[in-house]
Structures are given as C-alpha cells and as structure tokens.
Design brief:
The complex is a heterodimer.
Chain A lengths: L8 E5 L4 E6 L7 E8 L6 E6 L4 E2 L4 E4 L5 E6 L8 E9 L13 E6 L1
Parallel strand pairs in A: 1-9
Antiparallel strand pairs in A: 2-7, 3-4, 3-8, 5-6, 6-7, 8-9
Chain B lengths: L3 E4 L2 E4 L5 E7 L6 E7 L6 E7 L5 E2 L8 E7 L2 E6 L8 E8 L8 E3 L3 E5 L1
Classes of the chains: A mainly beta, B mainly beta.
C-alpha cells in the first residue's frame, strides 16, 4: 500500500468548505485513494474513493491531481458533526486485497 | 450501505479472564474479516485477518494464542482475548467487504471497548 502523508490537524469554520490534503507520491497505478473518517470512540466511516478521476458523493468530493501524487478531500459545508480524524489510504485495486493500513490521519476540528 | 456490527460495545473484565468480541456482517456475506486494535490517541493497527473456514492470519508481533479468532460462518467472526491483562485494554474494531455489491468498499464495525481491571 502507498504511504500517505497528511497534516496532523486542521481547523475549519462551520459552514465553510473543509479541504483536507493528502500526499501519496509513491502511489502505484493500480492503487485507489480511499478516505475514511473516525469520529471519537466509533469505528471508521467510509467517505469516498477514487482512482484517477475526481469523484463526488453525498458526503464529499475527492480531487486527485493528474499525476496522482496528491489528493484533496472536500467537505463542502462543514458542520460540527464533521469533527473527526480523517484518514487517506492507498489501496490496491485487486479485489483480493481488503487489508487497510492506517496512518495517523488529520484531526479536523470544526469551529462554531 | 453494508453494515458491520460488533458486540459488545464495551466490556470490563478481570485480569486473567477471557473475553469474546463478535463481529457480524448484517446484510452481506464476508469470507474475510479484519481485526484492528486502537490505543488512545493512536491510529488503527491491524492485528489479524479472519478467514471463513480456515485459520486466521496474524500480523507480526500479535500472539495468536492470546488473541483467538474464529470465523465459523460467512457472517460472523469472533475475537477472544485470553488471559486478559490491563495492557490489553483497548478499542477493538473489525472490518469486512461486501463482495455481493460488486464494489470495493470496506465497512467497519462500531468498535468494542475492552477494559481489563
């Protein structure tokens, strides 16, 4: 799995867009970029994933650079409930690999 | 989306006793589940891979005789912490992938807090 690097912590004002960066310069062509978040004392929650193209779902948008060496998770209108630790993970595309390696993630705090 | 459930959510046990944690895939079958451990203010660390109908695969440094894993059906994996000690107190989390949906997303359980006193 590709090693990912994320800022340790970030703050964002409530109602604003939260932009969480992730560097994955060693990612290979067959690795997805996955984002999970973990709210305090809960299991990780899946947010979004992508391979090459930008992706959007009801929770967030994922912007992947053309060289795939970095990506940004965007929470368009952050709420207090978005306060959590956000993990960016590289994961091979072959369906046999379901093992995820978690880094330290970014602790996002939404400020009222 | 697919749901993975753990039970109990929290448990307190005495040193030297054993405690079992269950991980269930509620609306899908999972031939493989994963067990993680998380200490306070740290990231998740993979402990082992639970394989339905066969032996679990343990990560380096994880004692297989202390953390017994059983995956007897396609919807249930159990983790038993044997002869628990206070240093085993942690947040234990399982995960599984819903192959039936044809997707590639892994879902996590709510986690189980273990406190050994």
């Amino acid at each position: 799995d590709a090693k990912t690097t994320q800022p340790t912590s970030m703050d964002c004002a409530e109602g604003r867009a939260a932009n969480l960066p992730c560097n994955h310069s060693t990612i290979s062509g067959n690795e997805y970029v996955y984002w999970y978040r973990q709210i305090h004392s809960q299991g990780p929650q899946y947010i979004i994933h992508g391979l090459k193209n930008n992706e959007t779902n009801e929770m967030a948008s994922l912007i992947i650079t053309e060289d795939r060496k970095s990506s940004t998770l965007i929470l368009p209108h952050a709420t207090l409930r978005d306060t959590a630790v956000y993990y960016c993970i590289g994961r091979p595309t072959n369906f046999g690999n379901e093992k995820l390696t978690f880094g330290t993630g970014t602790r996002l705090t939404i400020i009222p | 989306g697919a749901v993975v459930s753990q039970h109990p959510s929290w448990v307190i046990c005495k040193s030297g006793t054993s405690v079992k944690i269950e991980c269930r895939s509620l609306d899908f079958q999972a031939t493989t589940m994963f067990w993680y451990r998380q200490f306070p203010k740290q990231s998740l660390m993979l402990m082992a891979t639970s394989n339905e109908g066969s032996k679990a695969t343990y990560e380096q440094g994880v004692e297989k005789d202390k953390f017994l894993i059983n995956h007897a059906s396609l919807t249930l994996s159990t983790l038993t912490v044997t002869s628990a000690h206070p240093e085993d107190s942690s947040f234990y989390i399982c995960s599984a992938r819903d192959r039936q949906l044809g997707g590639n997303t892994i879902y996590f359980g709510e986690g189980s807090w273990l406190t050994v006193v």
